[in-house]
Amino acid sequence: MPHDQQRTRIQRKNRQAILEAALDVFSQYGFRGATLDQIAQSAGLSKPNLLYYFPTKEAIHSALLSGLLGHWTAPLRSMNPDGDPVEEILTYVRRKLEMSREYPRESRLFANEVLQGAPHIGEMIQTEMKTLVDEKAAVIADWADQGRIPPLHPYHLIFSIWAMTQHYADFDTQVRATLGGADQDPFPEAETYLTTLFTRLLNP
Question: How far apart are CA 88 and CA 204, in angstroms?
């Protein structure tokens, strides 16, 4: 392998290691509690080596969040206006719950950012995310106007889906402890419960 290609491959590997370590540290301690030393140690790199790739803690945090927002909104973006309203909404519920199961660190990273007032992604929330939510809320309102689902406040329906699905990631320790221990898997029963709950809401 040519030297330049090898160096590029190592750089990609190190950058990914830093972002993966930062995801662990930020999701556990939040932005304010996390340190570059913690991230470097978790990544298996020296602090000067880390600073070669990211000059500040803010730069690492921003890189994580900018990639996360698109990933986080993908299930809502996939809601099809031409599909069956009940199935489209139930699919969204299931996909959000699946993301809480598969990406708990990302969920906690996002939650910590919002709890701090969204200092790093506030603009994206107010523009890209709001535009998407406005678009899908209008779709839900149209379905209600057509009598295909009951009259529901579309924004609060979306908020309730966020609250009920992301809770399983953001409060994972509490959920598992309440159910009987860290080895308890809440997701199969959670999917059954939420599917039943929203099915009844949408088919009164």
Answer: 17
Could you report how far apart the first and last alpha carbons of the chain are, in Å?
A: 64
Q: In terms of Cα–Cα distance, which of 59, 178, 69, 79 is closest to 130?
A: 69
Q: CA of 47: how far to CAs of 18, 25, 29, 44, 52, in Å?
A: 11, 15, 19, 10, 9
CATH fold, domain 1-55, is Arc Repressor Mutant, subunit A (1.10.10)
What count of Cα atoms within 13 Å lies in the side-chain half-sphere of residue 62?
Answer: 11
Lowest mean pLDDT among 62-71, 108-117, 142-151, 153-162: 62-71
Q: Which amino acid is at 133?
A: V
**Which pTM value belongs to this model?**
0.84
At which residue do the structure tokens 């889906």 appear?
A: 161
Q: Answer yes or no: are the C-beta atoms of 202 and 183 closer than 8 Å.
A: no
> How does pLDDT run across 97-120, given as a tens digit for each residue?
999 999 998 898 888 888 889 888
CA separation for the pair 184, 168 (Å, rounded) = 12
Domain boundaries, the chain: 1-55, 61-202
Confidence at 15, pLDDT banded by 50, 70, 90 = very high
CATH of domain 61-202: 1.10.357.10
Q: Write the pLDDT tens digit of every residue in 35-49.
A: 999 999 999 999 999
CA-to-CA distance for 172 and 158, rounded, in angstroms?
21
